Amino acid sequence: MAPGNLSQVTEFILIGISQYLELQIPLFFVFLVIYGLTLAGNLSIITLTSVDSRLQTPMYFFLRHLAIINLGNSTVIAPKMLVNFLVSKKSISYYGCAVQLGGFIGFTAAEILMLAAMAYDRYVAICSPLLYLVIVSPQICLLLASLAYFFSLTTALTVSSCVFSMSYCSSNIINHFYCDNIPLLELSCSDTYIPETAVFTFSGINLIFSMIVVLISYFNIILAILRIRSSEGRQKAFSTCASHMMVVTIFYGTLLFMYLQPRTNHSLDTDKMASVFYTLVIPMLNPLIYSLRNKDVKEALKRFWDNPCQSIKLM
Predict the structure, then answer these.
(1) pLDDT single digits (tens) 73-94
(2) What is the DSSP string of 38-68?
(3) What pTM was computed for the model?
């Protein structure tokens, strides 16, 4: 950008979820509980899958990284949001907004790609069980996780730098509870073609690639399950991917609802509710889904609770 086009805005004002003063304190406690459960649940998953020797498998390797991503995504949004419920001036600095946008984009892209890696893992486990540990080796797990983080970091740096290369020289009021692409683009007083193209391109590539991997994986998983003759065998095979299917359905369902709704029905209030769900509620639900439906995780939690010192020695 030329020096004359530099932004004149030094901070942004976040409208938040609701402007009603009487709702600020109740909303603060609601989201404090949600964030507290998110911290407790995801830290538990990270700890258990790190220290328990029986959870050192590819599935729990990806689950640990999903928990790290969920924790990061929620932490980028929730602390500032909670503070703004308690103050009259709900501001965020220009650079703080840039960091929040970059963090949100990066962790969301990483979650999309990690869910795809987990779908591939479940596909191999059910369709090629005898070769599972050969195909999904520790090196492949590390490679898939590294690629997910690399592409999410590339997406975050590219998109956020494009958005914040624009000029913000008039209004600085963001009609949202965090710094998001669409409200920021609407505030710009410069040409938004390049940032909008970057947002659309990177979001589309990550989402479409991930959905193709997930759909192909589960199509083959369903075919493999249907070929199993015994009902007990089908139930056992289905149980190995039920939690991931639930997480994928909730996550992609929310994203598709938000981005594929007709423009005539599109509103920022709807965006806010959808954003609350996939930035704060889903990171809280994921550990519950995986722990409540997973016998191995529940047993690992019991072992850790009964003898934490012995569990830590296993690291």
Answers:
(1) 999 999 999 999 999 889 999 9
(2) HHHHHHHHHHHHHH-GGG-SHHHHHHHHHHH
(3) 0.89
